[in-house]
Design brief:
This protein is an alpha/beta fold. Helix content is 34%, strand content 21%. It is built from 17 helices and 20 strands. Strand 18 and strand 19 form a beta hairpin. Helix 9 runs parallel beside helix 10 and helix 15 crosses helix 16. The protein is globular, with a radius of gyration of 24 Å. Bound molecules: N-(aminocarbonyl)-beta-alanine and zinc ion (2 copies).
Length: 519
């Protein structure tokens, strides 16, 4: 029988600390099925001081420094990397109000659902300093987050100052992704020319360009048309901006990024049409990534036609959920095939009173839905329980790929020695019925209301501490840390070679100067 001794981390610490401190720092996760994106194996996982310090595969005969180390039993559970939600808007000031799930409640909700890392969006107003907005978001988040987080920054206008501030954010503040909006005319929307310049700057800095892809001019015209026809309710929202508005903008964003030769990430892919644009572009070798969201995988846009205004308005978000009921299955199939990449939520929640700002005009309904708490369960239930995804695929689309794309891998998104001890014990058999009455979010509606899901986070470990176990939260407000993300992650691999090869194809013809015809 082989004898595996625990790593030097533990041995070193024993000499220096009393037993009491030791117990606080150490945790053993026993008898679980460790599940990474590429393989599953039975093992015990030892955590110390917020990191995974050892993994003992089944059959290892290992010795621990003490018999008193706290043990979490993971029998019949999957031991997976904590979920990563790459798209949230906690306490976002938006459309004349502020999203109700703040960084405290929002990250309690994420933990209860098995998510331990989010990337939220700094959204400066047009003309506002990006740095000033970034510091504002850091202040909001740092005081409240219950787990680690990071920030994307939106570029809502373009100038020399914006270019300089992008550089500072990348070099000094750990931002490696910038989002542009092709929609929200007269507020966040940028032009194609601005996008071209923003993408060029992204490429120079080695950071990922992200796009909200909808044709903002067509959305604007569509909204006017609906209102003129007297369609003022939530059902007007999707009809004003049908799938082709999303598909056209998706193609345009990919084309502009390809002209610049920089990778591009399409946030909240909501339609089959837009998804197929991405699939085709990838077949043509373009460097594009697509993000479906929990809402788009779990429900459809038929709810906006519900006769109860409150119900219908709760489903209003942009780009809209599509009435086509086959959309969610197609998006899941594309996650399975690898044509779409990671699952976000776009969690941006407004209560009934806030949604009612648009009671007579759907264009004034604050856009956004929930998802941060239910994302993992929705993906497991609709993906794994349908046989579309394997357990490894589940990990790939809920954490590993996001960690890779946004360059925090393998610190996040993988169970391995040295990784952060953000770990979930996933119970594939546990069931619940989703409801606003029992969810942990501040919002008073849940778009998945009444849905029975099988597969839940039984235990969530954040930075080595159990903070969710058997339906009980013990989170610590403000304990999460901002995680800086360096530029030139793997999405940039080979981009310079592509430039070289492409530039070799550009050629100048040497010829005699033009001579006008004589006489
Ligand atoms: O409806 C949405 N998506 N609200 C949040 C802002 C955005 O466009 O992502
Ligand atoms: Zn968006
Ligand atoms: Zn969003």
């Amino acid at each position: 029988v082989s004898l595996v001794f625990i790593s030097h981390f533990v041995v070193k610490i024993i000499g220096e600390m009393c037993n009491e401190c030791l117990y606080l720092l150490l945790l053993l996760i026993k008898n679980g099925l460790v599940t990474n994106e590429d393989r599953q194996f039975k093992a015990d996982v030892l955590v110390q001081d917020g990191k995974v310090v050892d993994i003992f595969p089944e059959g290892s005969n290992y010795k621990l420094p003490s018999n008193d180390i706290p043990v979490v039993d993971a029998t019949d559970k999957l031991v997976i990397p904590g979920g990563i939600d790459p798209h949230t808007h906690l306490q976002l000031p938006f459309m004349g109000t502020v999203a109700v799930d703040d960084f405290d409640i929002g990250t309690q909700a994420s933990i209860s659902g098995g998510t331990t890392f989010i990337i939220d969006f700094v959204i400066p107003a047009k003309g506002q300093s990006l740095l000033e907005a970034y510091h504002q978001w850091r202040k909001w988040a740092d005081e409240k987050v219950n787990h680690d987080y990071s920030l994307h920054v939106a570029v809502t206008w373009w100038s020399e100052q914006v270019a300089k501030e992008m550089e500072i954010l990348v070099k000094d503040y750990g931002v490696n992704s910038f989002k542009v909006f092709m929609a929200y005319k007269n507020s966040f929307m940028v032009t194609d020319e601005e996008m071209y310049h923003i993408f060029q700057k992204c490429k120079e800095l080695g950071v990922l360009a992200q796009v909200h892809a909808e044709n903002g001019d067509l959305v604007h015209e569509g909204q006017k048309k609906m209102l003129k026809m007297g369609i003022t309710g939530p059902e007007g929202h999707e009809m004003a901006r049908p799938e082709e508005c999303e598909a056209e903008a998706t193609l345009r964003a990919i084309t502009i990024a390809n002209r610049v030769n920089t990778p591009v990430y399409i946030v909240h892919v909501m339609s089959k049409s837009a998804a197929h644009v991405i699939v085709n572009a990838r077949k043509e070798g373009k460097r594009v990534f697509g993000e479906p969201i929990a809402a788009g995988l779990g429900v459809d846009g038929s709810h906006m036609f519900n006769c109860d205004w409150r119900h219908a308005a709760a489903f209003v978000m942009g780009p809209p959920l599509r009435p086509d009921p086959t959309t969610k299955d197609v998006l899941m199939d594309l996650l399975a095939s690898g044509d779409l990449h990671c699952v976000g939520t776009d969690n941006c929640t407004f209560c009934e009173g806030q949604k009612a700002m648009g009671k007579d005009d759907f264009t004034k309904i604050p856009n956004g839905v929930n998802g941060i708490e239910d994302r993992m369960a929705i993906v497991w239930d609709k993906g794994v329980n349908s046989g579309k995804l394997t357990a490894c695929d589940f990990v790939r689309v809920t954490s590993s790929t996001a960690a890779k794309i946004f360059n925090v891998y393998p610190r996040k998104g993988r169970i391995e020695i040295g990784a952060d001890a953000d770990i979930v014990l996933w119970d594939p058999k546990a069931t619940k019925t989703i409801s606003a009455k029992t969810h942990h979010q501040a919002v008073d509606f849940n778009i998945f209301e009444g849905m029975k899901v099988t597969g839940l986070a039984q235990t969530t470990i954040v930075a080595g501490k159990v903070v969710w176990n058997n339906d009980k939260l013990s989170t610590v407000k403000g304990s999460g840390k901002f995680v800086p993300r360096p530029p030139f992650g793997m999405v940039f691999d080979g981009i310079d070679t592509r430039d070289k090869v492409r530039n070799e194809l550009l050629r100048k013809v040497e010829r005699a100067p033009y001579q006008p015809p004589k006489n």
